[in-house]
Specification:
This protein is of the alpha/beta class and about 575 residues long. The strands form six sheets. Strands 1, 2, 3, 4, 5, 18, 23, 24 and 25 form a nine-stranded mixed β-sheet that branches. Strands 9-10-11-12-13-17 form a six-stranded parallel β-sheet. Strands 6-7-8 form a three-stranded parallel β-sheet.
Length: about 575
């Protein structure tokens, strides 16, 4: 019997990505495209029973850092384990192209500091079979991956490529430098990049504490990048703003850049401490005004606290920078635990102070006092403030350092501690819900491919559906059709990808079959599976019956099938969308 389709998904509740009411239908796939949606009479070479499940477009994640990882491994994890079928890389102005051979160490050290990827992982993992950005795209074109990847041009790499050492010496670019940057942005977009990105965040430094090159740029340089997009008549502009005390002042700068080029611009929008008057709310008002004035500016919003993890086997803990600990930091975990159980070593470590050339590192270490110990079998992203380590220590009559020391040794040194660093200033997620529900924001900031030993937010899509579309109280719940649109059609349109993000005939067959009732996040765990034996946190999920890329099932019930249909997506090879 001749099969009419390559794949048929039968009997599911189709949530098509457009925000319209879900409907029961079959979905048929042929040659990597959606061939029909409705009642399917013909048979498929493969069939999936989706009775009692939802069928969605594959998720589009516009904020990731897989720029290095996709050059050395085939699975875009953790994102591909959470329903994501397309990722956009190169965010926050950091990446690995363009780059001349003598500048490689500079970019590696920058990525190590900004995105917490160990230097040895990059040194052994990166093939460096490119110099220019078009050559980087060509190198990615040769890769076979489980999901699709798309790129943006990172400003810090571009600045170093154009200005060399001057980019790190706080020197202003010359008129010739600006023209070169502009031309290279236009070239990157023409060759297939989807945008250009930069950072104004003073926390973005090398591990030694040197500022990212993009932080030395002024408005004229940012406008030159925007000019490059205009020259190519395409592309988006992404940035992470300065965590200024005056959120309105920072937004005014972003608006000036958007007005200069009138290309789509998005930025990281967070509820952070020390911004008077809820700076995020003033920025929401400013977004509304920008839209009224015809500007396309969006805030990228996280669906939960942007949280950091601490532990002896992670990047940071209270004694990471203490001289006595650094002397044993190279030892295997079991040997470090044994040394730390020695009363004399304990006494010595507790009288020392941390030493580091990077003030951000010392600040993050000190922030441990506000962490929460994870000691259950489920992740808790909304911890009760009274359970912070410093408060538990006070109740026990100890300094927080003494109290933390003993907790770190639990579970043979594998105990994890969670710090809800942003989006939790009031000890709840009310600000998050208000930002998520705004028409000028996008759910984003998962940061997959980065922060291997500090942050584990690649699970954002799963959490978003579980927390806000299924488990939220009725007055704060996001309708499933709106939640799926937030993960699919809206981000796809925002970065101008019109061939995905919706379930409709003729579009790319990137799909998920999800058991929404069974959707659940596991606890993060540490895996030593990076080049040179490097470690990273991973987090798995239940509920994903099947994830499909270009009509090929890449995972069943959360387990990869080994199929690698994912490829580089070049702007120009896909129809461009007009953002909704």
């Amino acid at each position: 019997m001749t099969m009419q389709y390559d794949l048929v998904i039968r009997g599911g509740l189709v949530v098509d990505g457009t925000g319209t009411t879900p409907f029961h239908a079959d979905v048929a796939v042929r040659d990597g495209r959606i061939a029909k949606v409705g009642t399917i009479e013909g048979r498929g070479a493969e069939e999936i029973d989706a009775t009692g499940k939802i069928v969605t477009p594959g998720f589009v994640d516009v904020h990731t850092h897989y720029d290095g990882q996709v050059t050395w491994e085939n699975h875009v994890a953790p994102s591909s384990g959470h329903g994501v079928t397309t990722v956009l890389m190169g965010n926050c102005g950091v990446g690995f192209a363009p780059c001349r051979p003598h500048e490689r160490e500079m970019l590696v050290k920058l990525m190590e500091g900004v995105e917490d990827i160990p230097e040895v992982v990059m040194t052994q993992g990166l093939p460096w079979n490119w110099e220019t950005f078009p050559e980087y795209l060509d190198a990615l074109d040769e890769r076979q991956l489980d999901i699709d990847v798309a790129t943006q041009l990172p400003h810090s790499a571009l600045r170093v490529f154009v200005m060399g050492e001057r980019a790190l010496r706080q020197e202003a670019p010359t008129a010739e430098d600006l023209e070169k940057m502009r031309a290279l942005v236009a070239e990157a977009i023409t060759k297939g990049a989807f945008g250009v990105t930069t950072s104004r965040n003073m926390m973005h430094r090398t591990k030694a504490g040197e500022l990212a090159p993009s932080l030395y740029s002024e408005v004229d340089e940012l406008c030159a990048l925007m000019d490059g997009l205009n020259d190519a008549d395409a592309g988006v502009f992404q940035l992470i703003p300065a965590p200024a005390s005056d959120a309105e002042e920072e937004f005014a700068l972003l608006r000036k850049v958007a007005e200069h080029g009138r290309r789509p611009l998005s930025f990281t929008l967070l509820d952070v401490p020390n911004q008077p008057g809820a700076g995020w709310r003033s920025q929401l008002r400013a977004l509304e005004q920008a839209r009224a004035d015809g500007l396309e500016i969006r805030g990228q919003v996280a669906p939960r606290p942007v949280g950091m993890f601490y532990g002896l086997d992670l990047s940071l803990h209270p004694f990471s920078a203490h001289p006595s600990y650094r002397a044993i930091a190279h030892l295997p975990l079991a040997e470090r635990v044994e040394r730390m159980r020695d009363p004399e070593f304990r006494a010595q470590l507790l009288v020392e102070a941390g030493e580091d050339t990077n003030p951000v590192t010392l600040a993050l270490i000190d922030a441990f006092r506000a962490t929460h110990e994870w000691d259950g079998d489920r992740p808790d992203y909304e911890p009760v403030r009274d359970n912070r380590i410093e408060q538990r220590a006070k109740a026990a009559g100890q300094s927080w350092q003494e109290y933390a020391y003993d907790l770190l040794l639990r579970n043979e040194g594998r105990q994890m501690f969670y710090l809800p660093a942003a989006n939790y200033t009031e000890g709840n997620l009310k600000a998050v819900r208000e930002m998520l529900g705004h028409p000028d924001t996008l759910m984003a900031l998962a940061d997959g491919g980065a922060h291997y030993g500090l942050i584990c937010d690649g699970s954002f899509p799963t959490y978003f559906l579980q927390r806000w579309a299924r488990d939220a109280a009725p007055d704060e719940r996001i309708a499933i059709e709106d939640a799926i649109a937030e993960l699919t059609a809206r981000p796809a349109a925002a970065v101008r990808m019109a061939d995905r993000g919706r379930i409709a005939e003729g579009l790319k067959a990137d799909l998920n079959v999800i058991d929404l009732d069974a959707l659940d996040l596991h606890l993060p765990y540490i895996a030593y599976d990076l080049p040179a034996g490097g470690k990273r946190m991973r987090q798995e999920a239940d509920g994903y019956v099947a994830t499909i890329v270009s009509g090929t099932v890449i995972a069943r019930n959360g387990k990869p099938t080994g199929a690698l249909p994912g490829r580089l997506v070049r702007r120009g090879r896909v129809r461009e969308a007009v953002a909704a």
